[in-house]
Amino acid sequence: MNEIKGKKVLILGGLGFVGHNLIKFLIDNYSCEIICIDNCINSSPAILNGYLDKITFLKLDAEKLEEYEGHIISSDYIFNLACIQVAHSADDPLEDLRVNASVNLRILEFIRRNKVSGIKKFVYTSSCSVYGHSSKLPVSEQDNIKPLSHYAATKYLGERYTILYNKLFGIPTTTLRYSNVYGVGQNANNPYCGVLGIFIKQALTGDSLTIIGDGEQTRDYTYITDAVKATILAAVHNESTGDTFNIATCKETSVNQLVDIIRLFVNDLSVKQIPERDIDNIRRRLIDIEKINTKLGWAPQVSLIKGIGLTLDWYKKELNIV
Ligand SMILES: NC(=O)c1ccc[n+]([C@@H]2O[C@H](COP(=O)([O-])OP(=O)(O)OC[C@H]3O[C@@H](n4cnc5c(N)ncnc54)[C@H](O)[C@@H]3O)[C@@H](O)[C@H]2O)c1
């Protein structure tokens, strides 16, 4: 990981949940020079209070390459984390396509056309939602891809372009498929990624926890620091080039089990059930992490109970609850 120490790092979507945690980690541990591009459609620079004077922040749509192309040329590492929220992707499929795939293609094409040669790694962040329903669990990188949402379809397109530009033009790229990242810094108003954030906020403010459907649907939850470390490791590791990796825990947890874990920390929880949504109605998700473990030597460190405890503590401070 020390490979990234002091390096210039361009982060698209850097004010988002994963992005701002990545920036803080890179500054605190590796003194990186950070360029953050974000159009603030779903975030605010305030999330980086205390760090803004240590980075270059440009409020820009990532599509406006002409405004930051010098940074593409001079960066050692590029992380593309910009996305529109999954809940909005079906309402505006063309915007979803633009942000998740076209913008990414533009950057890769800029790198190719201009023969940009100093980049050590271009990282595109995709999602385990590309697998859709899987009859085989845990699902691994070579298993069938069956996107069931616009978001999953365009994420898959974004990752294929990313890998293609390695295979055809030798650009050092890698793609990562995150599975339900949660933890400190997550926006509780995000209706999809923030299921745990939403529950924790509801628990701390005395609201009923809203369980969608019967609560027996499962997901594979990844704590934010584990996701951040895996992302950096994938960037610096030679073995990641031209390849795709799941980032998850290979542990399956139902929504009802999440509620039980939160009960360990918060007394007098109430729950209410609401009907299932038509997005992401996948029953079970369990993700194989053998590949990233054997090829890159990564394994998650934070258990779900510990991660929920840390997240609760953070939300208490955010919400001024003693
Ligand atoms: N959080 C998860 O559980 C999860 C799961 C699977 C995949 N992912 C992927 O990881 C990445 C980061 O996710 P996140 O949770 O931090 O998302 P997020 O929504 O919190 O952050 C995305 C950021 O991108 C910015 N953005 C959107 N469109 C932009 C544009 N056109 N130009 C510049 N900035 C733009 C937003 O303002 C926001 O700050 C995304 O690619 C997402 O698809 C996340």
**Whole-number average pLDDT?**
94
| Multimeric status of the protein | single chain
SSE string: EHEEHEHHEHEEHEEEHEEHEHH
CATH superfamily of the largest domain: NAD(P)-binding Rossmann-like Domain
Radius of gyration: 19 Å
Q: What is the annotated CATH architecture of the largest domain?
A: 3-Layer(aba) Sandwich
Plain-language structure description:
It is a single chain. The chain is α/β, with parallel strands linked by helices and 322 residues long. It has two domains: 2-179 and 224-248 and 291-296, 3-Layer(aba) Sandwich (Rossmann fold); 182-218 and 251-286 and 303-318, Alpha-Beta Complex (UDP-galactose 4-epimerase, domain 1). Helices cover 39% and strands 16% of the residues. It has ten helices and 13 strands. It has helices at 17-30, 65-74, 86-89, 93-113, 150-169, 195-205, 224-236, 255-265, 290-296, 304-318, and strands at 8-12, 33-38, 56-59, 77-80, 121-127, 173-178, 181-182, 209-212, 218-219, 222-223, 243-247, 253-254, 271-274. The strands form four sheets. It has a seven-stranded parallel sheet, with helices on both faces. A two-stranded parallel ribbon has the order 7-10. Helix 5 (150-169) links the parallel strand 5 and strand 6. The two termini are 37 Å apart. The mean pLDDT is 94. Residues 12-13, 15-19, 37-43, 61-63, 81-85, 99, 103, 125, 127, 155, 178, 180-181, 193 line the site of nicotinamide-adenine-dinucleotide. Nicotinamide-adenine-dinucleotide is lined by residues 12-13, 15-19, 37-43, 61-63, 81-85, 99, 103, 125, 127, 155, 178, 180-181, 193.
